[in-house]
Amino acid sequence: MSAQVSDSFGAVTSLPLVELRGICKRYGDLLANNDIDLRINRGEIHALLGENGAGKSTLVKILYGAVEPSAGDILWEGKPIAMGSPVQARALGIGMVFQHFSLFDNLTVAENITVALGKDWTLQSVRTEIGKISADYGLSLEPDRKVWTLSAGERQRIEIVRCLLQNPKILILDEPTSVLTPQEADKLFETLEQLAAKGCAILYISHRLEEVRRICSSATILRAGKVIATLDPRRNSARDIAAMMVGIEVGNISPREHAPKESMLKLNKLALKSETIHEIALQDIDLEVHCGEIVGIAGVAGNGQSELFAALSGERLSRRGMVSIEERDCSLDGITTRRTLGAAFVPEERLGHAAAPHYTLSENTLISHRLDSNVVSKGMVSKEAARKLAGEIIRRFDVRVPNPDPEARMLSGGNLQKFVIGREIISKPRLLIVDQPTWGVDAGAAHMIRQALINLAAYGSAILVISQDLDELFEISDRIAVIHDGKLSTANATESWSREAIGLEMMGIGQEGKHS
């Protein structure tokens, strides 16, 4: 599939579609990319791996023209080019799906895609093409829905479809399955294999090593900004690849003894009307979470997870008697009151919902922490105390930061996730409700977060985890329930579930009588 050229001896050789040679990028004292070489061929699905902060995002932004390298060369079809902007990159045939969505919430799906594609596209032509792409690749989208009404998985589909409509020669995907269900991920893999068969190159960034081993024929591993290895991931175990990424062997989750204790969270026929025609109404949800246990909730994106989290956190209020924390009815209480009862919350969207992008990490600690009275003076919280607390979170949860107290937006997605999780866990809440705890983090960070959740449960806290990662739920949960179309199945012991049974529940065709 590669371009053919002859060397000085007349032998035919193949040129890669794109080649990076000696790429360096320096931010002050930080060398984010250090003499990186990377070759990607036509029709190849090539993984770019590394722990959070290894330099992956910086490197692909250089390739996409969003960041200028400090040194090094980019060759496109064997010819040196200066990648001046994303506009130039797209004109060459480079498409990119970023980990953080770049969408206008108040515009429709079709309007968002039309804005990105430019003046050669009309709204009607985009609607038509969305239909074709949806049919061809199973990436279902409703063109006239407002983006703010969509789940994270549906928003991810917009980003992917937007790139596919540009007929890219190379498609860069940054954590594309982090908010997709297993079924959606399987469909995406089929899409990528179809694209590769047609000659499109795929540069695939993911922390899910088993899916890398499934679809990628080659992988480049970065650590601390340098290339550590280039290998065939199919010939290496996920554990070996993870060890190369983080520099040490990634261990197993430490088990804990689990004995049911007193009830901490109780939902009694929780119902919530949808505020728009696109929201999912919650219907008669019964659930109890005890101190010292982890209850997991699985489900396909857009089946009521966001609405459930809002009802539990106090962002949406229900009717009396529906939500109780430690036997106190808090159905009509907001977030602040629920926090005073010992509850803590980690929403799915870390940048903008869990953390204010343009505020420093120390300022972001004040979003959820009520600091001790000895650091409060005349109604003002001590900045020094906030910085100290942020520093403790950074240290304990290995958050990689460019300076001691950066703005939240300056962190990589995985490091920001570690920070917002750590911010809540460090206060040892009596109840923790977390939505997608390891979204977009590397194997080492995922292990640390999951172990921290297990340790918190061992301490005696009640934990409710909403996750689309079934491996995660099977690893840490004592009981698992499935949400579908706003209804919640019975929370059964994890060992009593099979993946097939959970899959049926996720599709709404579980065993009769299992739904509460």
TrEMBL record:
What SMART domains would the database entry show? AAA
* Domain of life (superkingdom): Bacteria
Q: Which InterPro entries match?
A: AAA+_ATPase, ABC_carbohydrate_import_ATPase, ABC_transporter-like_ATP-bd, ABC_transporter-like_CS, P-loop_NTPase
Q: Name one GO molecular function term.
A: ATP binding
Please verify whether the record's keywords include ATP-binding: yes
Keywords (alphabetical) are: ATP-binding, Nucleotide-binding
Domain named ABC transporter: residues: 18-249, 265-510
Q: Which residues form the signal peptide?
A: none
PANTHER family noted in UniProt: CARBOHYDRATE TRANSPORT ATP-BINDING PROTEIN MG119-RELATED (PTHR43790), GUANOSINE IMPORT ATP-BINDING PROTEIN NUPO (PTHR43790:SF4)
Q: Which family does it belong to?
A: Belongs to the ABC transporter superfamily.
Annotated protein name in UniProt: ABC transporter ATP-binding protein
What is the scientific name of the source organism?
Answer: Hohaiivirga grylli
